[in-house]
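Give me structure tokens for this 318-residue protein.
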Amino acid sequence: MLEHITDDIYRLVVRFKGAMGEMNSYLIKGDNGYTVIDTGIHAPETKALWERVLSNYKIEKLVLTHTHEDHIGLARWFQEIYEIPVYVSRRGYEQMSKGKDAKARKNRLKSLIKKHGAPPIPLKIRDESHIYKFEPDGFFDDNDEIKLGNRLYQTIWTPGHAPDHYCFYQPETEIMIIGDHVLNHLSPVIGLWMGEEHNPLEDYLKALDLLKDYRVRMALPGHGDMIENLDERITDISHRHEKRLEQILELMKEEEMTAFKLTTKAYGPMKSMAFASQFMATLTRLIYLEEHSKINVQTKKGKNYYGLPAKDLYAIRS
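Here you go.
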């Protein structure tokens, strides 16, 4: 079940139906048992896998990189059934509080997608509020030190994919547990999954640059393969975002559009489960461009329309 990564770190690939289909959990060996990083979603198949693990390995505590459903899903179950202490960031606790009210979250998302031109409701939102309804046993903050196994790791706040996302860095071994901040073969989705409008892409790009200050021999992501050259992967992801931003500006030469229409122009008609992520990625890029004064936004009949500034349109038409 466990894949040996380093002298004290093991990987457990937690597989489940839907979403990304799997998640990497890490078990870090210590004198008092293993520290678990993230759990996978709350589902019968994930519980069955963890029951096998928990019957064979002593777990000291559970620590969460962030509070998305596929990472925090079994935290309450760990705590209530197996009495395993759960540690989360204080920022994560704030997100948990929002996640407890499923109706309010759904209403915010409905309002958000309606404002940005999407039909009701392309996002199928399951009620996962029960996974947030527990009290963590401990908290960590930005730039703290947290003991994972026998070693101290630095907590690095890396918002963007989630407002409460943290990476954990061990300076002696140069290992970074990187969660969903950087993935090896995919760009993490930058979305507004709580339905609150802000500029997460700005946060994400700044947090990407922040990691270049760390000497990393190996990065352990929440999904997919390990990353041996983190700086190179960060550069690749940054370039990908630049190209997508350029694509949006190019599409806007035609006309003003809502985020939904721009998504269909960039990715094709709404026809797959991936469309929700594509819509969110487009929307957060539009928010980023508007805050950087690259585009304008106008509200017409309750919907936001994005377009190029008049001077840019004049230059194109000239």
